Known about the structure:
By secondary structure, this protein is α+β, with helices and mostly antiparallel strands. It has 7 helices and 7 strands; from the N terminus they run E-E-E-E-H-E-H-H-H-H-H-E-E-H. A hairpin with a 2-residue loop joins strand 6 and strand 7 (164-166).
Amino acid sequence: MKNDPTNVVSKSKLLFPRAKHDHIQGPIDAPIALVEYGDYECPYCGQAYPIVRAIQEQLGDRLCFAFRNFPLANSHPHAEHAAEAAEAASAQGKFWEMHDMLYENQVALDDESLAQYAEALGLDARRLIGEVLSGAHMVRVREDFQSGARGGVNGTPSFFINGVRHDGAPSFDALLAALVQPNAR
Length: 185
């Protein structure tokens, strides 16, 4: 059941991270799985970003963290290109580096800035921007978005802990408590 291609069981419940599809940090078989649906231009995702990093540091190998794109293009005009830039960076082996760069520079996500970030990360910036402008990674971004929508995601950030949506506050204490609560999920 873990490898179901739809990755959705029912509304507000998703299956665990998929090794060959998701961007993952930590062991895929960790006892705790945290999936985030995020938007690089969303200020709330920007606030959650250092919280997730601190939780990863706290839990270490007990946590498998997966990030999925959920750009809210109607509210955030640069969100889709930012998500595509992250995917284009992934094609060059640097998803997480671009993911971090985008969250750390949320106020500048226009195409020129994306190219500058690619250069700063040692990526082929011309290739990255070409892929963004051509929509080369839009299918992947839409797959993530659709899996979230099928799972009940309607805003960002949205977190799922061991397959169950976390509707509590995305504060460090609340999220950590939900993650380590025995038999909570």
